[in-house]
Amino acid sequence: MDISSDEKFIIFTIDTNGDGLCDIYMKYLFDEKIFKIENKGEEKMSGDVSISPDNSKVYYITCDKDNRRSSLYYYDLVSLKNIKVYYEADRSYGMSITVTSDRSKTVMVIGSYSNNEVYEVIDSTTKLILSRREEVNYSVDYYLNKWYVLVNNKEKSYLITLNDNLEVEVLLNNVKNKEIAEFYIKYGYIFVIFLYEGRFILDILELCSKRMIKTIFLDDIYKINFPGLSNLDVFNNILVLEYTTFIKPISYIVIDLDKLSTVDKLILDSKDYYINKSKILEYKESKYGSIRLNVNERGLRITVIFNKEYHGNNRKCILYGYGSYGIIVEPGFSKYIPSILDRGYIYCIAHIRGGSDNGFNWYDNGKKLNKMNTFIDYIECAEYLIKEKITSADRLVGMGASAGGLLMGAVINMRPELFKLVVMGVPFVNVLSEMCNDKKPLTTEEYKEWGNPKEKKYFDYMSMYCPYNNIDLCKEYPNLYIYSNLVDSLVSYKVPYNYYIKIREADVYKSGKKNIYLNIKMKYGHSGSSNHFERNEEMADIYTVILSIT
After folding, report:
1. Domains identified in the chain, total number
2. Quick check: is 425 in a domain?
3. Which of 3, 68, 342, 409 is the most buried (most CB within 10 A)?
């Protein structure tokens, strides 16, 4: 969603299938009418929208036939015409569109998982601000006639400024063992979120003096966001932080920036915020806790979420894993997790290589020819939980979706005895075959994550871990629950279906010793249903299987 700088109208998108393709709507705030913006061509619209600084245009991204975000358009609110601005021909890159915090610049980012480049968009023209460099990612903003740029690469992260002539000044150098994850500018301050030993830390830098005035540890495990609508005017003296943990629903923290340099405590006013609070039935945050366990000296960690009313070792346990694309499993409240905690389970998150939980190098050491590290880390987490008697193999549930489903498939081929049940959601389990077909959505953009199997070294390496190719019908596989969606545009339902057809012939399933389930929903996309109640039903299906087997 975006709101015009004059606050007269909003743009919002609706995804009806959960496949990332959206309809775009515009609503004037003082009018009841809702207007749909349509592109008459064959291209499908993504959810990326942005209103131009002068409020005369709506920029949006369209997808090609493979659902790659490939084209930038704008809809002219005066002429009511759609104008094509840019097309990205390189199929290993996609694009996004946004507006800077002060709403003075429209920014287009063209990127892959490992690098990107940045353009300023002015009407139907684009101006290159930062060019692509291998293994370098940029995040940008604009404030008082300067570009502010976060540069992340394998070695370090640092903040720079660029004037309109693109002359560089270093604002904040790399800090040892602390990687800059995000920044936000408001009212003469820059709020910098560092990633340090798997945790987020908020630092505050005063721009005029370039001195760090605050270092804030709000909680042991937390995440902060800067809600755009609440901070629409970057020149006013109020900052709103969106604050959450694994056990705390979203809270909004309000900071008076005029008093920031003179007060001892950061939080001046804080109150819990719930959507429809009355429908969160008797949720008591004090009942729950979360801790971080150090698995090894390399930095591998597990977050454990639990109900304090249950004690003792050998607990029923869900171990969630993902470990791809540099995605961090960030602290965030899920309304579904307390339900399973109240039944005596503990919910664990494995912060494995392939994600960026410990910085960019943590990601780099879990992709391409390092992908096996992802599976090794997850297995080590499971072994740790069993060794420390936190759980046992006959009480442990492995769970992951999409690339996390690939993780589950690879892990049970390697160490099936570690799990009682494994839940695989929309699983990318035939990575080798899928990546060999460059006409499919999960292909050309994915070369920088998995490698291009047309090169022998990548083909041979993928063959080592591809779940489908390494099925052994004689192995003692755990119970399996596989779910997928018919209209999934990223991982076709055929991928988990063919995997199911093959693995169900394993002796352990043919004999009835273990159970195997396949659930293909008929109308959802990759992310499942976009309907609140249908999403509840999906989670109920998963938890029903978990409760019945463990």
Report:
1. 1
2. yes
3. 409
